[in-house]
Design goal:
six-stranded antiparallel sheet; OB fold (Dihydrolipoamide Acetyltransferase, E2P); 1 helix; mainly beta; elongated
Amino acid sequence: MEISGRIIAVLPLQSGTSARGAWKKQEYVIEHELDSQYPKKMCFNLWGDNVDKFNIQEGQMLTVSFDVDCREYNGRWFNDIRAWRVTPQMQQAAAPEGAMPDFGGPVSGGVPFSASDAPAPAADTSSDLPF
């Protein structure tokens, strides 16, 4: 599964030692559906070397690939959302001041306008203006 959004919280690093050796885990909260009136939040985690590998910081825009798993402990069930790939999203560069925005779409009707499509102005000799 995959989700994109902004990291709004980096929770404290957890670490310890088990029968298999040392381990570490860090949890993060990502907010997605940013353009919605009620953005959604999800907490996911990274284990082991992935914590250092991805170096996630608060405020980053990311796309997170993850697996969802569930486990039972003492008669209760717990979800585990474990990320396995984190990709930074490219921030759009701001346009220089005074530059016209590029809306990226065709003009109305889907056909671009060209100067040859415009009707030629009638010759008017009553004014001194060149147009």
